[in-house]
Amino acid sequence: MALLSFTFDPEPTEAFLRLGYDAYAGDPGFVPPLRAEVRAQLEPGFPFYRRPGNDHRRFLVLANGRPVARALASVNRDLRDRDGSRVGAVGFFEALDHDAGADVLEASCTWLREEHGLGRVLGPLNFDVWHGYRLMTSGFGRSRFFGEPYNRAGYPELFEDAGFTPRRRWRTYRLEPEAVAALAEGDRSAFTAFTERGYRLVPFGALPYDEAVGRLHDVLVRSFAGFLAFTGISLPEFRALTRWGRHAFHPSCSFFILDEKGASALFTGVLFDLAEPVRAMGGESGLLSRWRFFAARAGVGRLLVHLGGLSPEEAAKHNGLARAAFALLMGRLRALGVPALATLIAAGNPVRRLLGEAAERADREYVLYERAT
Using only C-alpha atoms, what is the Rg of the chain? Predict the structure, then answer.
């Protein structure tokens, strides 16, 4: 086997890209990302590479000329641990062979230590939390939802064999109709007290799309500023990431709550699950693939309570707005009568308490790992 180390070299980059699809050949749970979008993240014009202070290295193992393992080590100038120290990242990980996978992880950590003096690395993390991170560690038998971390079942063991340990966990919870009904009963009138003080609810669908995305960017960047591995993102980059939003956000169950001064205090996002429509595209973005997307989109029924943020100013008030908004959301979802929803929450996040008894029934789990280089 041969270990290649490179950056933008066209031939190995193409093999690097191809492995991301070969690793899941025949896997019914795989939702192929669009090749054009993944390729764009590997080209010099991608915003990450143009930012001063950022750096990266790609590693690829070939066996008989065939790619069998890959990883991308990155240095993000803004990526810091909670204590303010700089950390590296390893992402885009795939491996068809255990030893080859161990080799690219070791090469990534060595490069981060020797070339940049970084003593810790987080992974898997594709540049930042905006472009894909975490490993699924349980729940492989469940049907995947759009935007969910997904990987081969042996990857967690491979990471741990390579010296990585869990840094933080996330879990997905299913909300069946009876659970939604119970949560909606929690405090149906609570939001009335906020409206009497000048707070307003604005449905996502009531705003021009570009304005809604701008408000969403503002409240998410501010509310997640203290989140592990969080780095800022420009509005143009965020707009590119929300390219599916026109087809995904539920217009009335996704909403902003504005405070007395008109500032975004809270956002909650309920998305149509686009896993099947995107799977139907087969990783391509041509006219036929787009037709397949819209044909499958018409049959989407599952919803995801997938995004949410409370501004730091509002969180400091401890006034119960999040609980009131959650009960209001559950009431709207109950009225829709959807069969089930999925919500992904970090372990230790107080939002989990809002789920009531449903919080005791995790559907699957994901982990972000850490290793000393």
Answer: 21
Residues 89, 58: one domain?
yes
Assess whether 102 and 231 both reside in one domain. no
Total domains in the fold of the chain: 2
Instruction: Answer whether 0.85 is exceeded by the pTM.
Output: yes
**β-pair type (303-310, 66-75):** unpaired
Same domain, 156 and 222: no
Q: What is the pLDDT of residues 111-135, one digit of tens each?
A: 999 999 999 999 999 999 999 999 9
Supply the DSSP string of 188-209, one letter for each residue: TTHHHHHHHTT-EEEEGGGS-H
The two tokens of residue 86 are 């700089």
Are the C-beta atoms of residues 314 and 268 closer than 8 Å to each other? no
Q: Using CA atoms, how far apart are residues 55 and 238, in angstroms rounded to an integer?
A: 21
Task: Please classify residue 337 by burial: count the beta carbons closer than 10 Å to its beta carbon, then call 0-12 exposed, 13-18 middle and 19+ buried.
Answer: exposed
Last residue of a domain, one of 147, 169, 191: 169
H-helix or E-strand spanning residue 164: none
Beta bridge partners of 88: 121
Q: Is the pLDDT of residue 313 over 70?
A: yes
Decide if 7 contacts 25 (C-beta within 8 A): no
What is the spatial distance between Cα 275 and Cα 137, in angstroms, rounded to a whole number?
Answer: 19
Q: Residues 190, 73: one domain?
A: no
- The domain in which residue 279 lies consists of 177-339
- What's the CA angle centered on 124, arms 163 and 46, to 5 degrees? 140
- Average pLDDT for residues 10-17, to the nearest whole number? 97
> What does the alpha-carbon distance between residue 230 and residue 80 come to, in Å, rounded to a whole number?
8
Q: Report the percentage of the chain scoring pLDDT > 70.
A: 99
Name the token pair of 171.
Answer: 């879990």
* Tokens describing residue 31: 């939702």
Identify whether the C-beta of residue 52 lies closer than 8 Å to the C-beta of residue 77: yes
> Which residue intervals of 33-78 are DSSP H helices?
35-41, 47-50
CA distance 159 to 206: 45
Residue 274 CB-half CA count within 13 A: 21
- The DSSP-derived string for 124-157 is SBSSSTTS-B-EEEE-TTSPP-TT-----TTHHH
Helix (H) / strand (E) containing 349: none
CA distance to 88, 109, 236, 372, per residue, from 367 (Å): 17, 19, 29, 17
